[in-house]
Design a protein that fits this description.
The structure is a single chain. The chain has twelve helices and 24 strands. By secondary structure, the chain is α+β, with helices and mostly antiparallel strands. The strands form six sheets. Strands 1, 2, 7, 8, 9, 10, 18 and 19 form an eight-stranded mixed β-sheet that branches. Strands 13-14-15-12-16 form a five-stranded antiparallel β-sheet, with helices on one face. Helix 1 packs parallel to helix 8 and helix 8 packs antiparallel against helix 9. The two termini are 33 Å apart.
Length: 512
């Protein structure tokens, strides 16, 4: 039987896999996505506990692809699912507003310095919000299908064979051939294991359970005990959102569903009082396992999202980290497939994304340590709580969690180089972000002069503008990262060097 043939085969229809499929489909690449669960099973496994907070880089990436209207609809659907869509717009003035946490140390909104330069020129913070995984994945799957991506549900990848030209995979009754295979198949990635990627890191110390349940005994809002932590929040629908973290006990079977008995036993051991779960609506468990692939590429096989890095889910970093991987990888892989990538372009995927993944691991590991039920750690926690109780510290943590600090070390001296394009309103009424919808690099020209771009016209969206706010000219890669900018001087040599670095020599210089 001849295998089905695609340019790229992606394993996993989580947010990372679907976002990558959208990026590749936008570039005209032939993509197949494999998912071991059927559509019904996939929808059935999600629920209230699968909701996440989207960070600024994630919302900006979706905005640059024209997905903001769909994102707002998905967020509204999530709020309705939680019963939060009819909450008052103006909360009581005496109620403190919390905007995040560090290791469950809550941060107050009034201590955030919104004038910090890292917030300037970024997408409005109010647009970043709560979204359910089911709604988010449905939004991305719809867009991927519109772009010609083929999604095979109920098709589990069980074997792969790689060679210098590509990869052949066995998935259910299918044999599929791809030039490239990308594992977006989660923290216990079969692709990572089959391809033997080294995955160093640290083993877990605790098991945490999150659940939406009904109990016969009230639980504290938040408590630290000799066994771990426990907390409970009443939801508008009358259920309780429960979180329990137990140190020194690991699950015997990570794949089995959380049962009412397991939740009752964990709450009893950690909280010290018997409790009965009268109804369990949704539950999930996780540990603090922390590991990262040393390289995200091995020949024609790549990893992205949780397949490349696992860590505790504090701050919702995992989903956002995976979206960042997909947006960084998509245009580079498409350019490689289509024969227009400069030498070494695909290697910059690991170079640029690995340090950000490593930072997330340090960030979440530090929070895990501060939860340990040990006297010395509890003493340290008191000190860290005091240190965070001020505007500079709160602003620092929020900037880190929001992702506005992220930048790449790219050639060039302009302050914007290596950072995401700023939020700019142009004189024709459009926003700069609107011009990234086709997935091409963007050159903004306000100099009044013609810039040397003719060799790359097939890869560029040229935007001429006469407003005075912002740089005189800038070149941004398809992922929205500024590769070159100038405040006045023409700098044709710098622009040409950036074009060659990220877009290649141009069609007139490519080998035929």
């Amino acid at each position: 039987m001849h295998p089905l043939e695609y340019d790229v085969v992606i394993s996993g229809t989580g947010p990372t896999g679907l976002m990558l499929a959208c990026e590749l489909g936008l570039a005209g690449v032939r993509v197949a996505v494999l998912e071991r669960l059927t559509e019904a099973q996939k929808a059935g496994r999600t629920g209230p506990l699968s909701s996440r907070i989207l960070t600024v880089p994630t919302v900006e990436a979706l905005d640059r692809r024209g997905l903001l209207p769909e994102l707002r609809k998905a967020q509204q659907a999530t709020l309705q699912a939680y019963g939060l869509d009819d909450m008052p717009d103006d909360p009581p003035t005496d109620a403190p507003r919390m905007i995040g946490h560090f290791s469950l140390i809550l941060l107050r909104a009034e201590q955030l310095d919104t004038t910090d330069p890292d917030f300037a020129g970024r997408f409005p913070e109010a647009e970043c919000g709560f979204i359910g995984r089911e709604e988010f994945e449905a939004m991305l799957a719809t867009r991927a299908t519109e772009l010609g991506v083929t999604i095979h549900y109920g098709t589990e990848l069980t074997d792969l064979s790689a060679d210098p030209e590509g990869v052949t995979v066995t998935a259910g009754t299918l044999r599929i051939r791809g030039q490239w295979l990308v594992g977006c198949d989660g923290g216990r990635s079969p692709i990572r294991k089959l391809a033997r990627f080294p995955f160093p890191g640290t083993d877990p110390e605790f098991t945490a359970i999150q659940a939406v349940a009904e109990l016969d005994t009230p639980l504290p809002v938040r408590a630290f005990t000799d066994a771990g932590t426990v907390g409970c929040q009443q939801m508008p629908d009358g259920t309780s959102l429960i979180a329990v973290t137990e140190f020194g006990r690991l699950p015997e079977d990570r794949d089995s569903p959380v049962t009412p008995t397991e939740l009752e036993d964990a709450l009893h051991r950690v909280n010290g009082t018997p409790v009965r779960v009268t109804a369990l609506h949704a539950a999930s468990r996780y540990t603090d396992t922390t590991r990262q692939a040393a390289d995200y590429r091995a020949g024609h096989i790549l990893l992205a999202g949780d397949a490349a890095h696992v860590h505790p889910p504090y701050g919702g970093q995992g989903l956002n980290l995976g979206i960042g991987d997909a947006v960084n990888l998509g245009w580079k892989l498409a350019a490689t497939i289509q024969g227009r990538a400069p030498e070494g372009l695909l290697d910059t995927y690991t170079t640029e994304r690995h340090p950000i993944g490593a930072w997330v691991q340090r960030w979440t590991m530090a929070q895990s340590v501060l939860l340990r039920p040990e006297p010395r750690i509890r003493a340290l926690r008191h000190i860290v709580t005091d240190l965070l109780d001020n505007a500079p510290a709160t602003t620092y943590v929020v900037k880190k969690v929001a992702g506005v600090w992220q930048a790449h070390d790219l050639p060039g001296t302009h302050p914007l180089t290596g950072r995401p394009v700023p939020e700019l309103l142009l004189d024709d009424g459009t926003r700069l972000a609107d011009h990234f919808h086709p997935g091409r690099a963007v050159l903004l020209n306000r100099t009044g002069n013609t810039l040397p771009t003719s060799s790359w016209s097939d890869q560029l969206t040229l935007v001429t503008d006469h407003s005075a706010t912002g740089p005189a000219a800038l070149l941004a890669r398809p992922d929205g990262v500024v590769a070159w900018a100038t405040d006045g001087e023409s700098d044709p040599e710098g622009l040409t060097a950036a074009l060659r670095t990220w877009l290649g020599p141009g069609p007139s210089h490519r080998p035929r």
